[in-house]
Task: structure prediction
Amino acid sequence: MKVRILGCSGGIGGRHMRTTSMLVDNDILIDCGTGVGDLSIAEMAQIDHVFVTHSHLDHIACLPLMLDTVGDMRNRPLIVHASEATLEILHNHIFNWAVWPDFSEIPTAENPFLRFESLRVGAAVALGGRRIVSLPADHTVPANGYQLDSGAASLVFTGDTGPCPALWEAVNRIANLRTLVIETAFSNSEHRLAVVSKHLCPDLLKEELAHLQCVADIFITHLKPGQVELTMQEIEDCVGELKPRMLQNNQVFEL
Result:
């Protein structure tokens, strides 16, 4: 399994600032932020599954546009996997004919460009020897993370989350965990904002990583533009012994 980072910024502004998305091999997306816009049309047309962590715009921005671009090039629907609550938000507030056409009805309800499939926390989807498992998260809207399991190794992506004891209970049960991608959206100067918006700052990250019982390579995602250097320095000060690194656009993980 190959995981390529298409976007990992908490915002936009400049050629390296792309919001959250990961390409798994050539046919699966984890979230569909602005990083997807850097794919070619041919690459987008190969994507069969999108696993959405939650409905915030930075994680779904390219989903409507990608469907509009490649829907008629495909011979089967694109399947969007997410919690029932997230799918309801997407259907009611994005694919609602007011913001964007409802591609679950285009060109016909019997043969649409888009199909929704709900996925409860703890459940897994098996795709060609790969397992995508929904993990707990705690955010301001219904949210979850994902475990990407090749059999040989696993990568965990927390998605957007504040403190979440249930997440660590699930992560600590993963025997083949190799890589942990965890968000830290704010610097410590915005601790209160992190708490209110259910994100992490370095002090909260330290508290969360104290629950991690296994050894893994740790990568930090969702850093806010303009605070990257400060936040990474604070992370180094808080949990430097764990050797966390900043996630980078176009970084590739082999699992």
